[in-house]
Design a protein that fits this description.
Length: about 300
C-alpha cells in the first residue's frame, strides 16, 4: 500500500453532504478542493473556511494537536506577523468516520506552487521574528504535548533516513544524492534533544501560504508540540542560502552551534521526506522545492 494512500477518503460530494448536514448555517454550501497533504483532505467552503478531513489515523491525531494549539494561540491573541487558521467548526466522529474541523481560510496559494524557490529570502528576518515571538510564548498558556515522536533523535531515525534517501534516489541528481548519502553516513547518533518551547513543529514549504508574491500565512499546525527550537529553526536551512540564513538567525536571536547542527539535521531529513513524497505522488511542484531544500540545507 502506498504510505500516502487515504484509509478514510472523503470526496468533494461527501464533504458537501456532511457539512450541509452538520452545519446548516453554512447552506448553501459551496465546496472547492484545495488538495491533499500527508494526512488530510482539504476543502474550501464558501470562500471563507477551510475544512480538513483526516485521511488516515495520523491525520486524526494531527488534527487534535492542531486544534488545541490554534485554540491556544487564538485565546492569547498571538500575533507573529503572519496569518494562521482559527478553528471555528468541529464535528465529532460518526460511525467509522473521523471527526473533522473547519478553520478560517488563510487565502493564497501554497508556497510549493511558486516557481521561485528563493522566495523566502525576502522574509528571512520576518520569519526569524515570527519564530522568536512563538518560541517565547509562556508554555503554561499553550495546550500542547511534549515531543513524543523524538523528532531530533538521529539514533532513532538514521537507518530510516538512509532508506528514505535510497527510495528517493531516482529523482535526485547524482551529485546531490552523493552529498546526501555522505551527510547521512557521517551523521553521529544521538538521543532526542528535549526542550521547553512552543513549536509549530512542521515548518516547510507545503505548510506556508503566499499571496501576491509574498509569504502571508502559516498553516497545518498538526505537529505542534513543546520541544526544542531547532525543529522550527530548520526552515532557515531548508529554504535559505547560508548568507540569508545569517539574517534569519540574527533576527531570531542567539543560536548556538549545537542548535544549528540539530536544525540542519531536521531540514535535511524533512526535505528528503518531501522528495520521496513528491516521487510517490508525481508532484513536480513539491519535487522542485524538495530538491532546492536539499541543496540549501546541505550547503
Amino acid at each position: 500500500m502506498n504510505p500516502w494512500e487515504a484509509t478514510h477518503p472523503v470526496s468533494l460530494e461527501k464533504a458537501k453532504e456532511k457539512i450541509e448536514c452538520d452545519f446548516p448555517s453554512l447552506k448553501p454550501v459551496g465546496v472547492k478542493a484545495c488538495g491533499s497533504g500527508f494526512d488530510h483532505t482539504v476543502y474550501e467552503v464558501n470562500g471563507e473556511f477551510v475544512f480538513r478531513f483526516p485521511r488516515r489515523q495520523l491525520g486524526y491525531e494531527a488534527m487534535q494537536f492542531e486544534s488545541r494549539m490554534l485554540k491556544s494561540l487564538d485565546r492569547i491573541s498571538f500575533d507573529g506577523g503572519f496569518e494562521y487558521p482559527k478553528p471555528v467548526f468541529y464535528q465529532e466522529a460518526e460511525g467509522d468516520d473521523y471527526p473533522y474541523v473547519g478553520f478560517t481560510n488563510v487565502k493564497g496559494s501554497v508556497l510549493t506552487e511558486e516557481t521561485d524557490t528563493d522566495l523566502l529570502h525576502q522574509h528571512a528576518e520576518e520569519l526569524g521574528n515570527f519564530l522568536k515571538k512563538l518560541h517565547t510564548l509562556p508554555v503554561g498558556e499553550i495546550d500542547a504535548d511534549p515531543d513524543h515522536l523524538q523528532r531530533l533523535s538521529t539514533k532513532l531515525r538514521k537507518h530510516h533516513f538512509h532508506d528514505i534517501a535510497s527510495q528517493s534516489a531516482p529523482v535526485i541528481p547524482e551529485l546531490l544524492y552523493k552529498k546526501l548519502i555522505h551527510y547521512i553516513e557521517q551523521l553521529e547518533e544521538w538521543e532526542n534533544v528535549s526542550g521547553n518551547t512552543p513549536l509549530h513543529g512542521d515548518l516547510h514549504p507545503k505548510n506556508m501560504i503566499v499571496r501576491n508574491g509574498r509569504l502571508s500565512g502559516i498553516i497545518d499546525w498538526g505537529d505542534a508540540h513543546i520541544g526544542h527550537p531547532a525543529v522550527d529553526l530548520s526552515v532557515g536551512y531548508a529554504c535559505m542560502t547560508p548568507e540569508v540564513r545569517t539574517l534569519f538567525f540574527n533576527a531570531y536571536g542567539e543560536v548556538d552551534e549545537r542548535t544549528q547542527e540539530l536544525a540542519r539535521f531536521k531540514a535535511v531529513f524533512i526535505m528528503t521526506v518531501l522528495v520521496r513524497y513528491a516521487k510517490n505522488t508525481e508532484d513536480k511542484d513539491v519535487l522542485r522545492w524538495g530538491l532546492a531544500g536539499l541543496e540549501k540545507s546541505l550547503s
